[in-house]
Amino acid sequence: MAQINASIITIGDELLIGQVIDTNSAFIAQSLNHIGIVVKSRVAVGDDKEAIENALNKAISENQIVILTGGLGPTADDITKPLLNAFFNGKMVIHEPTLKHIEYIFEKVHKRPMIDRNRKQAEVPDTCEVLFNETGTAPGMLFKKDGCFIFSLPGVPHEMKWLTENKVIPLLKTSFVSHFVKHRTLLTAGIGESFLAELILDFENAIPSFIKLAYLPNYGMVRLRLTGTGSDGVALDKILDEQFELLKIKVADYLVTDEDDTMEVVVGKLLKANHQTVATAESCTGGYIGHLLSKHAGSSTFYTGGIISYDNRIKTEFLDVPTNILQTVGAVSKEAVEQMAIAVREKMNTDYAISVSGIMGPTGNTDEKPLGMVWVGVANKEKVVSKVFYLRFNRQRNIEITATQAINLLRLLIINKI
Question: Where do the domains of the chain lie, and which CATH numbers do they carry?
Answer without folding.
Answer: 5-175 (3.40.980.10), 180-257 (3.30.70.2860), 263-414 (3.90.950.20)
